[in-house]
């Protein structure tokens, strides 16, 4: 450990179980010396194992519906009250598509479900940043990281409406990142992670086949959830103070590889 976050305070959203990237991020932040608050929607907390993570990391839990400004205001104010000061970093790891859950094809999207997914998965970042900014809840040079996926840039048929929603998420990070940077020098970035065997990820139809394809295409292989947690810690630390409004690929080289020799060999047989 490097004590990269010693003395810092942070909020980690979206830790559902030990397979969650947010779970790994919380563990790594704790190991690097940070004090953290864990948050998730009340219904997700009832389904998950967040209390185990809180015990392991010495964290407080503040339930919050990420679509509710009242809940988010209470989250940031409560976090400052419990930790005794302003926040240095925030992880936005929130994503949900009812259309995907119900196996509804993209061309037949239910728009009520679509709007719900956009509110939960993308607008929640805007709401979170707005709450933090109005409360002046973050220290200068603070860092906000939201998790995204390359389907925001390239077409993946199985990702349906979440592809559009992630594109919105990344745009919010850039747009709000400008204003937060000018006002408070707070950094806002998105991390585009490899396909990862989380509870949410493995629920997508055809995930295992795609996971193996991406692993074979990427020169370094797929990035693990643990490696993603380390990358997030680096972005929360003072070592990346001038990085903001970026979509950063953490995918073993997948995003810039057209074809791999091993995949060509398969077609050449």
List unreliable stretches of 5+ residues.
none
Strand order of the largest sheet: 3-2-1-4-5-6-7
Distance between the termini: 47 Å
Rg (CA only)? 18 Å
**Percent in strands:** 5-15%
**What composes the largest sheet?**
7 strands, parallel
Shape: globular
List the helices and strands in order.
EHEHHEHEHHEHEHHEH
What percent of the residues sit in helical stretches (DSSP H or I)? 40-55%
Number of strands: 7
How many DSSP helices? 10
Mean pLDDT: 95
- Alpha-beta content class: alpha/beta
Provide tags for this entry.
46% helix, 7-stranded parallel beta sheet, 269 residues, 10 helices, alpha/beta
What does this structure look like?
The protein has ten helices and seven strands. By secondary structure, it is α/β, with parallel strands linked by helices. Strands 3-2-1-4-5-6-7 form a seven-stranded parallel sheet, sandwiched between helices. Helix 1 links the parallel strand 1 and strand 2. The longest helix has 25 residues. The N and C termini lie far apart (47 Å).
Summarize the structure.
With 269 residues, the protein is of the alpha/beta class.
Could you give the topology of this structure?
Layout: E1 9-13, H1 21-31, E2 35-39, H2 42-47, H3 50-57, E3 60-61, H4 69-83, E4 87-92, H5 98-101, H6 111-134, E5 138-148, H7 160-184, E6 187-193, H8 207-217, H9 225-236, E7 247-250, H10 261-268
Helix pairs in contact: 1-3, 1-9, 4-6, 6-7
């Amino acid at each position: 450990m490097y004590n990269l976050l010693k003395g810092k305070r942070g909020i980690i959203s979206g830790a559902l179980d030990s397979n969650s990237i947010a779970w790994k991020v919380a563990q790594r932040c704790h190991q690097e010396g940070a004090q953290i608050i864990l948050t998730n929607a009340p219904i997700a907390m009832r389904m998950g194992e967040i209390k185990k993570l809180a015990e392991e990391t010495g964290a407080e839990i503040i339930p919050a519906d990420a679509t509710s400004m009242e809940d988010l205001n209470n989250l940031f104010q409560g976090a400052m009250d419990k930790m005794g000061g302003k926040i240095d970093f925030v992880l936005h790891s929130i994503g949900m598509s009812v259309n995907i859950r119900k196996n509804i094809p993209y061309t037949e999207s239910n728009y009520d479900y679509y709007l719900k997914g956009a509110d939960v998965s993308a607008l929640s970042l805007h709401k979170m940043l707005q709450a933090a900014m109005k409360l002046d809840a973050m220290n200068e040079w603070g860092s906000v990281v939201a998790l995204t996926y390359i389907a925001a840039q390239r077409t993946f048929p199985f990702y349906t409406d979440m592809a559009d929603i992630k594109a919105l998420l990344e745009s919010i990070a850039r747009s709000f990142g400008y204003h937060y940077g000018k006002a408070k020098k707070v950094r806002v970035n998105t991390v585009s992670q490899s396909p990862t065997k989380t509870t949410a990820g493995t629920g997508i139809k055809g995930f295992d086949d795609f996971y193996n394809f991406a692993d074979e295409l990427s020169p370094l292989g797929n990035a693990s959830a643990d490696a993603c947690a380390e990358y997030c810690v680096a972005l929360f630390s003072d070592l990346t103070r001038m990085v903001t409004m970026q979509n950063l690929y953490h995918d073993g080289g997948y995003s810039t590889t057209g074809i791999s020799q091993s995949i060509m060999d398969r077609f050449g047989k």
